């Protein structure tokens, strides 16, 4: 069997990781005083929400449900579009992302899981350390998951290898595009600057922490109506912001299911987008939940 870990992240790439984490976070800290000082316009809100939705769905529908778990099949153009949209979320190149997540499922909440909050014990101090590790600490680890073991199918795909190599330029695009639009629409440098701040930096860091919260919070707090071999849980406050990803217990109980929010009232925007893809004929063989499938994994006392 191929080893769990591959090569280590080169130093320049490691410096870039710290920059991707720290710089947007500093922007988020500055957001409140900037808004208080009238540095937030309706255009900034519209751009930030628009880029958040597109890039979040690129990660949830593309990187996660499609590339990692094969919840549906898609035409080549949609496959490439989802890979690009996911890359614009600035959560790392697609091959790294998919390999990490498949490894997470292979060793969920056990030794070998790259981001479980339960790896250090159950004492208060251990849980604080575990939360930090699951939320952000693991991102800063230089050891990379072995792609040949966990993502050989994507390694063999020329289109995906190209998108993987274009992660740097796509990061520039996801930060520069809001600034360009803000500048052109307002025809001012100030409009470009505030759009870059809100729809670029703040949007990226907000999406980062929502995604990382699925790794941390959704393995510690919430309901567990389905039988999973780990501590994955449903955390409803994140459902809309995560586009349905925080219905995490069902996902771990049935990883290839295209819909995570399967119970009444569970909003799952990602599943609705997949449904639209299917209706348009762009996606097929969608793995939708069925009563029989759900009954098999539903806990009797839930």
From TrEMBL:
User: Pfam families, per this entry?
Assistant: FA_desaturase
Residue intervals passing through the bilayer? 15-36, 42-64, 162-181
Which residue range or ranges hold the Fatty acid desaturase domain?
41-259
- Cell compartment(s), UniProt: Membrane
The alphabetized UniProt keywords are: Fatty acid metabolism, Iron, Lipid metabolism, Membrane, Oxidoreductase, Transmembrane, Transmembrane helix
Task: Please report the record's description of how this protein sits within the membrane.
Answer: Multi-pass membrane protein
Chief subcellular location: membrane
Q: Which family does it belong to?
A: Belongs to the fatty acid desaturase type 2 family.
Give the protein name, as stated in the record. Acyl-CoA desaturase
**Organism from which the protein derives:** Dactylosporangium fulvum
């Amino acid at each position: 069997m191929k080893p769990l870990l591959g090569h280590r992240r080169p130093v320049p790439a490691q410096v870039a990781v710290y920059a991707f984490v720290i710089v947007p976070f500093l922007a988020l800290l500055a957001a409140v005083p900037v808004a208080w000082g009238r540095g937030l316009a309706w255009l900034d809100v519209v751009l930030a929400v628009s880029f958040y939705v597109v890039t979040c769905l690129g990660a949830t529908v593309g990187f996660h449900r499609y590339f990692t778990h094969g919840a549906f099949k898609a035409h080549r153009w949609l496959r490439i579009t989802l890979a690009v949209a996911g890359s614009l979320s600035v959560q790392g190149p697609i091959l790294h992302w998919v390999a990490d997540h498949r490894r997470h499922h292979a060793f969920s909440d056990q030794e070998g899981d790259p981001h479980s909050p339960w790896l250090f014990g159950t004492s208060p101090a251990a849980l604080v350390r575990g939360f930090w590790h699951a939320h952000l600490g693991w991102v800063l680890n230089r050891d990379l998951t072995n792609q040949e073991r966990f993502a050989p199918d994507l390694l063999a795909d020329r289109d995906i290898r190209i998108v993987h190599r274009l992660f740097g330029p796509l990061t520039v695009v996801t930060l520069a595009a809001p600034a360009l639009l803000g500048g052109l629409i307002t025809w001012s440098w100030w409009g470009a600057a505030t759009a870059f701040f809100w729809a670029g930096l703040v949007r990226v860091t907000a999406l980062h922490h929502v995604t990382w919260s699925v790794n941390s919070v959704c393995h510690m707090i919430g309901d567990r109506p389905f039988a999973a071999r780990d501590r994955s849980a449903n955390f409803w406050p994140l459902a809309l912001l995560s586009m349905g990803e925080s219905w995490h217990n069902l996902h771990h109980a049935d990883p290839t299911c295209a819909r995570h929010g399967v119970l009444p009232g569970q909003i799952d925007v990602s599943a609705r987008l997949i449904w639209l893809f299917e209706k348009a004929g762009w996606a097929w063989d969608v793995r939708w939940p069925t009563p029989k499938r759900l009954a098999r994994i539903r806990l009797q006392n839930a």
